[in-house]
Amino acid sequence: MPLTFELCPGRMIGGDHPCFIIAEIGQNHQGDIEIAKKMIRMAKECGADCAKLQKSELECRFNKQALERPYNSEHSWGATYGDHKRHLEFSHEQYRELQKYAQEIGIFFTASGMDEMAVEFLHKLNVPFFKVASADSNNLPYLEKTAKNGRPMVISSGMQSMETMRRVYKTVKAHNSKFCFLQCTSCYPLKPEEVNLSVILEFQKEFPDIPIGYSGHETGIPITVAAVAMGAKVVERHVTLDKSWKGSDHKASLEPKELAELVQAIRTVEKAMGSPVKNMLPCEMSCYSKLGKFVVAKVAIPKGTTITLDMLTVKVAEPKGIPPEEIYSLVGKKVNTDIAADSTLTTAAVENCVQNGKLF
Q1: How many C-beta atoms surround the C-beta of residue 302 within 10 A?
Q2: What phi and psi values does residue 188 have, to the nearest 5 degrees?
């Protein structure tokens, strides 16, 4: 199974590829397609890679009694939970309209299929990948059917244990090699002490052949940036145009300014991750030239003298000579010229001392 794969046409994830940033609109569009379009455009303008919604076929996702129960929340859009959800649910034709709009402005578009019928519709809609919400990440029949469609999958892990995620891995892997897990805690908004970013590292050890990411429900951006620094290859954050709007997700969502700051911070951190090879860099040469230290004679050392450690010290010196890490290698060697006190020791002044090639 690949550690990297193409999540969307022309867009690889994993490895050294940039973190894939999903702007989760969810149902923060308030059931208004024009607001949804504004949010898709906002996601694009802020630099996100993908705008994502949530698609349900309500009679498949909920039983009759769940839909008919009274819903008296301040966030309610109807007298019953079914009325509430129907207000927020876009039709198939509206989804096609939103997909076309996203294509026109140049951002990837997908949705979480919140039930098997919704997944079938999204498959026909030809979304680039399926997002599996935490509520379905232990729904093994759903996962198996979704995986068999062959599209890449991004699977959240809220409310699950590591043992369950092992079973999820085996279930999906049997049918589809292109998937990733997101560390997630299903609480809105999420307290920092309940984020558990360390699970990212455990997922990386437990599932070394798939990319690992992060789906955040906290407020602000620092925790998500930290997730990227820890190796998250996909991040998902809820977005909104106004946190004061009705709806339980808005408070845990990023407004446009915050989303733009998050994207910029992630791209900056990716640059800062750099190379694992530790060497002096060209940008350090100016500092090294001014402040780099070298081995200096603490006392006058006559020609032919065998060097002892008490003859040497380390200072910023001109001319530049032997670096301090080689001071112990000088002990026992003879000098082939007189060296004045407080003068730099150079390789030319010490017998059998070659600095270029293999030093000493």
Answers
A1: 9
A2: -135, 115
Sign of CA dihedral 255, 258, 264, 268: negative
Are the beta carbons of 337 and 303 closer than 8 angstroms?
yes
- Closest C-alpha among 120, 70, 113 to residue 89: 113
Distances (CA, A) of 24 to 67, 110, 172, 269: 24, 10, 23, 22
Side-chain-facing half-sphere of 37: CA atoms under 13 Å: 12
Q: Which two tokens stand for residue 328?
A: 């112990």
Side-chain-facing half-sphere of 5: CA atoms under 13 Å? 20
Q: Torsion over CA of 282, 283, 285 and 287, rounded to 10 degrees?
A: -170
Q: Are 158 and 100 in contact (CB under 8 A)?
A: no
The token pair that represents 336 in the structure block: 């082939």
Evaluate whether 239 touches 221 at the Cβ level (below 8 Å).
no
Residue whose token pair is 């085996």? 170
pLDDT in tens, the chain (360 residues): 458 999 999 999 999 999 999 999 999 999 999 999 999 999 999 999 999 999 999 999 999 999 999 999 999 999 999 999 999 999 999 999 999 999 999 999 999 999 999 999 999 999 999 999 999 999 999 999 999 999 999 999 999 999 999 999 999 999 999 999 999 999 999 999 999 999 999 999 999 999 999 999 999 999 999 999 999 999 999 999 999 999 989 999 999 999 999 999 999 999 999 999 999 999 999 999 999 999 999 999 999 999 999 999 999 999 999 999 999 999 999 999 999 999 999 999 999 887 555 555
- Write the DSSP symbol of residue 306: B
**Gap between the Cα atoms of 145 and 155, Å rounded:** 14
